[in-house]
Hints:
Layout: E1 12-16, E2 22-28, E3 33-36, H1 38-43, E4 56-60, E5 68-80, E6 87-94, E7 106-107, E8 115-120, E9 129-135, E10 146-150, E11 166-169, E12 178-182, E13 193-198, H2 199-206, E14 214-215, H3 234-247, E15 253-258, H4 269-276, E16 299-302, H5 308-318, H6 329-337, E17 344-348, H7 356-374, E18 377-382, E19 394-396, H8 411-434, H9 450-462, H10 468-515, H11 520-534, H12 540-560
Parallel strand pairs: 7-14, 15-18, 15-19, 16-17, 17-18
Antiparallel strand pairs: 1-2, 1-4, 2-3, 3-6, 4-5, 5-6, 8-9, 8-11, 9-10, 10-13, 11-12, 12-13
Helix pairs in contact: 3-9, 5-7, 6-7, 8-9, 8-10, 9-10, 10-11, 10-12, 11-12
Amino acid sequence: MTPDQGPDRPWRVRIDDRHGTPCGAGVLLDGRSVLTCAHVVQQAEAHPAAGPSAHLRVRSAVAAPEWRRTARVVEDAWAFENGTRRGDVALLRLDEPVDHAGHTELWKVPISGGRVRVYGFPAFEPYGIGVDAELAGSGGRAGEWGLLNRVHEGRPWIQPGYSGAGVMALDGAFAGQVIGIVVADYVDENGRAAWMVPVDTMQTYLGRRIAPHVRGVGIEVPSRGDPAADLDDPLQLALTQELARLLTSGWAGVALVATGRRTGPGSSWLVRLTQTSRAPGPDGGAPRGTALPFGAVDAAYDARGKTAGEVCAYLAHRFGFDPDREREPAPLVHRLLRRRPPAFVIVDGIDGAEDPDRLLRDLLIPLARDARTRGLRLVLGVEGDPPDDLPYQVHLDPTPLPGGAPRPVTEEQAREAVARLARAEAEALRVERTTARRFLAPPRLPHGRAPRLAVRLAVARATFPHAEIAAIAARAAAAVTDADAYVREVRGMDAAHEDLTVRLELYRALAEEHFGAADPELGALFTAADRALRTAPVDLAAAGRRVPRYVAAVNRRIAEG
Length: 561
């Protein structure tokens, strides 16, 4: 059953000022509590600063019989920073309870994608109009809101009167559930985007007051102390900036990051970066490039001391998969690799899990094998050496590089060498996506080395002169050679495929000229060769046998007269 095939949602309510003028919308949580935007309450002149007598009106939108109640802001349940993309939530208490109100659940979910519906109260529409939108993830730097994109041009769109409206998921595992509220002082009716406050943000501000209504799991990484203090260390700063750059560049695949043997769970720089995508609050003046956009990470979990089953159960619950069937590794991997939009998952402390080998064998290695081709971003934190048999594209290892170079290298030369490598690896990635995937058993894409070398260069520059500068330049030059060799090999396969295709077509035309188009013997040989060239992924070795076989048969028949 889709959300609109059932009865209207009784949680839909309208917020009016004390005179009955509509100001926005809200979500009825139970018989006494209503969730809405702080600026809606302010517009109704019922904000806490207005005094204890200040109140507003709440009226039902769909309930029968229709009801009206006065309401006031719950003490310490108000968060509003005008002019920012932060907070803007308020909890109201009805002066008189509503009978048979039920219990509305608020779900913490990934906000990177999916279709949603909201019902607001624009001017002259007392019972509301529904609008569909698309979740679009990030609220940007220093934001706590999620983006809503317009779906249908020429149809009603979010405008004044929609603020506070419940955002209801329309598709996926959370269909029919409230996952946030619309927030915006004013959105131009011709605009293409609006904003929502996700449940994660609401819970940060309203905490225990809405806890009985909150369902689902969020970003599960613990915090200890002040993680921003790590940014005073050039190494931690460089690691954070490089991984943040990688993860916001459209890159996909597996990034293996060495967090280092620190003081325990929650103390690594990876945890700090993860928290920036979920933790509302000011960034404290942290350097630019050390935070992920709010909502960027779909799921994150600290695996230290956890079983493989616990990691799987977390992921199944976070993405709303069937908890009975899809918490098992095989179906979970299948769903995660096919999620749209592709998921962004962080698992920290994988070598500190209760049974690291089982976690790798059952879950992480199967995910890693197809992560890049499926668009999945999988970031794995390790404290020790890279696990054997784990496929990965990038390894961010803070360990200093040994050795130097036969000749002195300047900082500028090392920087240019790393930049040249970044360009070469970007081209190799492009060729892998556009060409290599067309073939069976293409050459293996070299691991991305530019991110690690960029980190080491940043550290070496901070303590210049540094003997590691020469080693960085030498490693970059060697990696450029590997990336260029990969590109040449793949392009060679593409050229060989093109040559075989042209040759097959040339001899097909020659055979038709001499023997007609219906020759059984040549027709069977041509079909086999043509199928080998066209069936993806192309088995170039098989095509290399079948095309010459057809060519030889045509030449033999022509020679026989």
